[in-house]
Write a structure and sequence with these properties.
Blueprint (H helix, E strand, L loop, with lengths): L1 E10 H10 L16 E3 L3 H9 L12 E10 L4 E3 L3 H9 L1 H10 L8 H16 L3 E7 L10 H8 L4 E7 L5 E8 L4
Parallel strand pairs: 4-5
Antiparallel strand pairs: 1-3, 2-6, 3-7, 5-6
Length: 184
C-alpha cells in the first residue's frame, strides 16, 4: 500500500459536510476529465486556485474557500497513472474495445470529445476495476497561467503539465483535514 497527500478545493460548507460524513459525493457530469469521481491535485496552489475560479459547469459556488487535505492510501495495481508510459499505452489500447461496445450499444446522439472522453474513462475504470485514475494535461490557456505563457512555452519547449487525480472509491481516503482562512 502507498500513501499520497492530495488537495481538493471547495466551499467551506461542502468541506464541513464531507468531514462530518467522512465521504465525498460526486455529481455526475458528462464532461469530467477522467470520468465521474472525486477530483484532487497534488499541488496545493492549484487547489487554492480552484477555490477562487471554480467552473460553473460543475455546479460549484464558492462563498468561503476551503481546502481539504486528504491522505489517500492505495494499491498500485488498482490505479492507472496516465503519466506512466505503460499505463498510458494500456489506456489507449483498450479504447478500441470501448468504441466497439459504444457502437453496439444502440443509436447515438452526436457528442463532443469531452463527453466521449468522460464516457471512455468511466468504461475503462469499470472494466478493469480501477479505484483511481491519474491524468496529466497540457492546457496552455489555463487562467492561472500568464497570458504570455503559450508563446514563451512554444519558444522554449517546456510546458506546464497539470496533474489531476480522480478517485472513484471513498475507501481510499484515509484522513481528511480542512484548511481555511489565511492558510489558503
Amino acid at each position: 500500500m502507498k500513501n499520497i497527500t492530495l488537495y481538493h478545493g471547495t466551499d467551506l460548507d461542502a468541506a464541513e459536510l464531507i468531514l462530518k460524513e467522512k465521504k465525498f459525493v460526486w455529481s455526475p457530469n458528462k464532461e469530467h476529465w477522467l470520468g465521474n469521481g472525486f477530483y484532487f491535485y497534488d499541488d496545493l496552489s492549484l487547489a487554492k486556485w480552484w477555490t477562487t475560479k471554480p467552473t460553473k459547469k460543475f455546479g460549484i459556488k464558492i462563498n468561503k474557500p476551503a481546502i481539504l487535505k486528504c491522505e489517500i492510501t492505495y494499491n498500485e495495481e488498482e490505479i492507472c497513472d496516465l503519466g506512466k508510459y505503460e499505463d498510458y499505452n494500456f489506456f489507449l489500447e483498450n479504447y478500441f474495445d470501448y468504441y466497439e461496445w459504444y457502437l453496439k450499444s444502440g443509436p447515438k446522439e452526436r457528442v463532443n470529445y469531452k463527453t466521449h472522453r468522460c464516457a471512455y474513462c468511466d468504461f475503462f475504470k469499470d472494466r478493469f476495476g480501477y479505484e483511481m485514475l491519474i491524468g496529466n494535461f497540457y492546457l496552455p490557456d489555463q487562467p492561472y497561467l500568464s497570458e504570455h505563457y503559450p508563446d514563451f512555452v512554444k519558444a522554449i519547449g517546456l510546458p506546464y503539465i497539470e496533474k489531476q487525480y480522480c478517485v472513484y472509491e471513498n475507501e481510499l481516503i484515509t484522513d481528511i483535514q480542512i484548511i481555511t482562512g489565511r492558510d489558503i
